[in-house]
TrEMBL record:
Annotated protein name in UniProt: Flavin-dependent thymidylate synthase
Highest taxon of the lineage: Bacteria
Reaction catalysed by this enzyme: dUMP + (6R)-5,10-methylene-5,6,7,8-tetrahydrofolate + NADPH + H(+) = dTMP + (6S)-5,6,7,8-tetrahydrofolate + NADP(+)
Organism: Desulfofervidus auxilii
Single GO MF descriptor: flavin adenine dinucleotide binding
């Protein structure tokens, strides 16, 4: 099968997310029960605009524990195994990934890096390599099945020839605090291009669904107003030393 493209969909998010965060914030400073604060918040007491302004202020102040009560669940496809290995390093999250043991990865889709895609000769070599690996996978599975090794037992051994380019599918759940951290690291120009594309796609959804939390989210420099990467800076933002007046 041919190359494939990134696809990100929001499966679900915490209902009444703004009210949940507002309630968590207020509970820290109120004698009132959280259940009562929540009931009022859902009814628009105080008005939604005031709740949003309050949550924005809390997030800007760095009081991020209260946003952990809200989570987003995404369905992601069209990503490589190379990306998923990076993704699962973000530990405060839940992942359910397509298994190469229980799913027969015959005629797999694959991801082509932009640097290879734009060079005709390289792309041809790359595509031929993918086709050869697809055929090799089939040969191994078929041979193992003839030997009486079937199903996942055949798949789990044949998958050793599958490349990092092989497409995978994954369901991701992260709370808002983890998402802010994920975006800060992976929306940065220094992040690998594929996971940066994923982060930007997820960020777009989060900004649309919960702007009170994510309006200012993105690469670290977006929130800080300066780049903390020193000599590795992409040049988009002034360096930390310049902004803070240090040499």
């Amino acid at each position: 099968m041919p190359e494939t493209q990134l696809k990100v969909e929001l499966l679900s998010m915490t209902p009444n997310a703004l009210a949940v965060i507002y309630t968590a914030c207020r509970q820290c400073y109120s004698r009132e029960d959280a259940s009562e604060i929540f009931k009022k918040a859902v009814k628009g007491i105080p008005p939604i605009e005031e709740q949003e302004a309050f949550v924005r202020k809390i997030v800007a102040s760095g009081h991020e524990s209260v946003i952990e009560h809200v989570s987003f669940t995404f369905a992601v496809s069209g990503i490589s195994r190379a990306l998923s290995h990076q993704l699962v390093r973000h530990r405060i999250a839940s992942y359910s990934q397509q298994s190469q043991r229980y799913v027969k990865i015959e005629d797999f889709f694959y991801i082509v890096p932009p640097s290879i895609a734009k060079d005709h000769e390289l792309k041809k070599i790359y595509e031929n390599t993918m086709k050869n690996l697809q055929e090799t996978y089939k040969i191994i599975v078929n041979k193992l099945e003839k030997m009486g090794i079937k199903g996942e037992k055949a798949h789990q051994d044949a998958r050793f020839v599958l490349p990092n380019a092989c497409e995978t599918k994954i369901v991701i759940t992260m709370n808002c605090r983890s998402l802010l951290n994920f975006f800060a690291l992976r929306c940065c120009e220094r992040a690998q291009w594929e996971i940066r594309n994923l982060a930007n796609a997820m960020l777009k959804i989060c900004k649309e669904k919960l702007p009170a939390v994510f309006a200012e989210a993105g690469a670290k420099c977006e929130r800080l107003g300066y780049c903390p990467e020193g000599k590795f800076s992409c040049g988009k933002m002034p360096l930390k030393e310049k902004v803070l007046g240090k040499k």
